[in-house]
């Protein structure tokens, strides 16, 4: 049962966040809450020490404050800020640099592509999500980049190591 939990909850949440953001330009609050509440369970199942759990929780809180500030200045949407914080619980400080580099790189490429597509003479596609994405009045679904970066960081995490039976150092 722990194998199933450790190998599915986080990846499925990241995939759902990315798909939801590109389709509706929203990341459900319930998804971010599920991700945050599932972290302590995953930490215990992977035999993470209490000091490491505390570090991850502190890192998640710091990410929440950063995300809130970015949201307040209009740099990201509220769902993106909450997803960043919930993901930070899982990846902790050790996974932060790869996560942020991948999210920033993918987000930048995605923004350039969307801006380019919006400036072309694009007819109405007939698909609600595509028309919303191509509209000049909407932002960029940054949850896609955050979700992919989360999957990238998770591939090298203690949770997968624990799931396949390698003890956490």
UniProtKB/TrEMBL annotation:
Keyword set includes Transcription: no
Domain of life: Bacteria
All residue ranges annotated as the Prepilin type IV endopeptidase peptidase domain in the record: 9-112
Keywords, sorted A to Z: Cell membrane, Membrane, Transmembrane, Transmembrane helix
Main localisation: membrane
Subcellular location: Cell membrane
One GO cellular component term noted in the UniProt record for this chain: plasma membrane
Cell membrane recorded as keyword: yes
Transmembrane segments: 27-46, 53-76, 96-117
Bilayer disposition of the protein: Multi-pass membrane protein
Gene Ontology terms, MF aspect: aspartic-type endopeptidase activity
Gene3D superfamilies: 1.20.120.1220
Name of one Pfam family that matches: Peptidase_A24
Protein name: Type IV prepilin peptidase, cpaA
